[in-house]
Amino acid sequence: MKYMLVSYGGSQEDWEGLAAWSDEDMHRMIAYMRDLDAELRASGESCSPRA
Length: 51
What we know:
The protein is mostly helical. It is built from two helices and no strands.
């Protein structure tokens, strides 16, 4: 299972702002997060949440 870094939080207004992003912007953010995940895994700096 893949995990995404949790990098966003805040008020309802903040979430509404994120929801207003264009599809293109959302896809760019997801691509960035995937690239960052791959970089962290390759360097050994990634950590996984434990239940």
